[in-house]
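Whiteboard transcription, Tuesday session. T.W. wrote the C-alpha cells on the left side:
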C-alpha cells in the first residue's frame, strides 16, 4: 500500500516540541504499518530561526542539536523566522507549540491565524490564543476550509475535547467542572497530607519539576481560567473569552483552613466551573471522584444521556501531552 504523506511544520521546539519529536520517533513504524501514514516534519521553527527541508528533517538529529550544540549548528539551519516559514513552506499541518501569553495571546495568535489563512490545518497545545479568541479563530478555520484542533490545551493527556466531539456527540452537556491545574493540586495535596505551608509545598513542587520558576499563573488560578474559557466555548457552545472568567486562586488558603476541612471529611481543591465561568477554591468531600492527589487533573462532565463521567490523568508532561497532539493530527488526516 502506498503511504499517505503528511507534511508538518513545528513552531516552538521546547518541552512540547521535543516530546512530539520523541513520540514521533517511537511511533513511526506504528504510523506507517497500522495507519499507512508517513509523517514528515518539513520545518522546525525556534525563536531566532528555523530548520527547513521539504523532503523531511530527521527528528533524531534535531533533538541532538537542540539538546547539545544549539539549533544553528544543524545543516538545515536558516535565519528564516516562523511567520516567513508559514508563508513560504507548504505543509499540511502546523503544530503551534510556543509559550502561552494570556495577556496578548502572542506569538501563537499570529502563527495560528496566518497558518489557517494559508490553508493549513493547525494543532496546538497553546492555551492563550484559544482562551482569548476562540470563535474568531474557529471562523477563520471554517472560512479557509481547514481545522483548528486543541485537545492538548486542556488537561494535557486527558481526552476531553475529542471525547465530547466523538463519544458524547449525542449528549447535551449540562455541566463541566474539574481540577485543571496540576501545580496547584500538588501544592494543596502536600499541604493536606503533610501539614506543610504553601511556601514549602511550592518549593517542593519546583524541586520535582512540577512547578515553573514563576508559578503565579498556576497558584492565582489564571491557567485554570484559560482552560475554563476553552471548555466553555468547546463543550458548551458559549462564546466567552478569558476576560469573562471570574478567578480566585489558592494563594490565600491557609493550613488552618485545610485542617478544618479535613476534620469534616473535606479537601480544598481549586475548581474550574465551566457553567458558572468561575475558578475558585472549593470544598470537595474526601470520597468524591474529583478528590485526586498530586499533580493529577480530573474533569467531571454531566450530560443528559450519558449522565456523569469523570476522567482522571496526567494534566501535563511533554510526552503525556503529545498523546493529545497525535489524537488531533490523526483525526485531521482521517
Ligand atoms: N509542557 C507541558 O507539559 C505542556 C502541557 C500542555 C500545554 N502546554 C503548552 O504548550 C506550549 C509549549 O509548552 P512547552 O512546555 O513546550 O514550553 P517551552 O518549553 O517554553 O517551549 C516553547 C518554545 O517555543 C519557543 N518560542 C518562543 N517564541 C517563539 C517564536 N516566536 N517562534 C518560534 N518559537 C518560539 C521557545 O524558545 P525560547 O526558549 O528561545 O524562548 C521555546 O523553545 C505552551 O503554550 C504551554 O502552555 C505545555
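and on the right, the sequence the group agreed on:
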Amino acid at each position: 500500500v502506498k503511504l499517505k504523506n503528511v507534511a508538518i511544520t513545528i513552531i516552538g521546539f521546547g518541552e512540547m516540541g521535543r516530546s512530539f519529536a520523541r513520540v514521533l520517533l517511537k511511533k513511526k513504524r506504528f504510523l506507517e504499518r497500522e495507519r499507512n501514514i508517513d509523517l514528515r516534519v518539513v520545518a522546525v521553527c525556534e525563536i531566532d530561526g528555523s530548520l527547513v527541508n521539504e523532503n523531511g528533517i530527521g527528528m533524531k538529529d534535531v533533538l541532538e542539536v537542540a539538546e547539545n550544540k544549539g539549533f544553528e549548528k544543524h545543516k538545515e539551519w536558516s535565519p528564516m523566522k516562523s511567520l516567513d516559514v508559514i508563508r513560504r513552506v507548504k505543509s499540511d499541518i502546523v503544530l503551534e507549540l510556543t509559550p502561552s501569553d494570556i495577556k496578548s495571546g502572542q506569538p501563537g495568535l499570529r502563527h495560528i491565524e496566518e497558518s489557517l489563512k494559508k490553508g493549513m490545518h493547525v494543532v496546538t497545545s497553546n492555551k492563550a490564543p484559544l482562551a482569548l479568541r476562540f470563535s474568531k479563530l474557529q471562523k477563520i478555520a471554517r472560512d479557509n476550509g481547514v481545522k483548528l484542533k486543541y485537545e492538548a490545551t486542556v488537561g494535557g493527556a486527558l481526552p476531553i475535547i475529542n471525547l465530547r466531539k466523538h463519544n458524547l456527540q449525542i449528549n447535551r452537556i449540562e455541566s463541566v467542572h474539574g481540577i485543571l491545574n496540576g501545580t496547584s493540586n500538588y501544592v494543596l495535596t502536600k499541604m493536606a497530607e503533610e501539614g506543610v505551608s504553601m511556601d514549602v509545598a511550592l518549593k517542593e513542587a519546583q524541586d520535582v519539576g512540577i512547578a515553573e520558576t514563576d508559578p503565579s499563573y498556576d497558584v492565582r488560578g489564571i491557567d485554570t481560567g484559560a482552560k475554563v474559557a476553552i471548555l466553555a466555548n468547546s463543550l458548551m457552545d458559549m462564546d466567552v473569552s478569558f476576560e469573562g472568567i471570574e478567578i480566585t486562586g489558592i494563594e490565600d488558603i491557609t493550613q488552618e483552613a485545610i485542617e478544618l476541612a479535613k476534620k469534616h471529611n473535606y479537601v480544598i481543591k481549586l475548581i474550574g466551573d465551566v457553567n458558572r465561568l468561575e475558578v475558585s477554591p472549593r470544598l470537595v468531600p474526601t470520597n468524591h471522584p474529583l478528590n485526586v492527589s498530586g499533580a493529577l487533573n480530573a474533569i467531571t462532565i454531566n450530560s443528559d444521556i450519558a449522565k456523569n463521567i469523570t476522567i482522571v490523568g496526567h494534566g501535563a508532561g511533554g510526552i503525556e501531552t503529545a498523546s493529545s497532539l497525535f489524537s488531533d493530527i490523526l483525526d485531521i488526516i482521517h
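Someone added at the bottom: The mean pLDDT is 97.
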